[in-house]
Design brief:
The chain is α+β, with helices and mostly antiparallel strands. Helices cover 15% and strands 37% of the residues. The protein has helices at residues 15-32, 140-144, and strands spanning 46-52, 57-58, 60-64, 73-76, 85-86, 89-94, 101-107, 114-120, 123-130, 133-139. The chain is elongated.
């Protein structure tokens, strides 16, 4: 009698975790690498996070920043077969941290095109589009430059 082959390992079906998890992993690496500098005094430190799609919906949107310990702020179901976040989606956050990175990730519905952007004012700091999911990340240093020395 020949032994039966091992049972196949189940593959996760929730791609949202891949998109959002990759954004969180890159954010954590940027922090661990010590991306840091002095903070400008009194400077407007607002970043705008955007998600768009010609389809008009996303399965899920998530963002994180160093100011709250990289907690995932999630919107939607994350199920790629269910449209649960109306697009365009946009939020503006204030960033007080002197180091780390800000990220936004989105999961497409039915493989439709989806994109994300991170802006400071009218300047696009990060932009990405895909047919499955998109994740954008920007370091605090890239967003705000080196701090003052005076």
């Amino acid at each position: 009698m020949t032994p039966s082959p091992p049972a196949p390992v189940p593959v996760p079906t929730r791609r949202r975790r891949l998109v959002i998890g990759s954004a969180a992993a890159v954010t954590a690496l940027a922090t661990a690498a010590g991306v840091g500098f002095a903070v400008f005094g009194g400077e407007d430190r607002a970043l705008t996070l955007e998600v768009t799609s010609p389809y008009g919906y996303a399965a899920g949107v998530s963002w994180s920043s160093p100011d709250d310990g990289y907690v995932d702020h999630e919107h939607g179901s994350g199920n790629p077969m269910r449209a649960s976040v109306e697009l365009p989606w946009r939020t503006t956050i204030q960033v007080d941290s002197a180091e780390g990175a800000v990220s936004v990730g989105a999961m497409a519905v039915h493989g439709e095109a989806i994109g994300c952007r991170i802006l400071r004012g009218d300047v696009v700091l990060a932009e990405k589009s895909s047919g499955i999911g998109a994740d954008c990340i920007v370091t605090i240093r890239r967003a705000f430059g080196a701090g003052r020395t005076d």
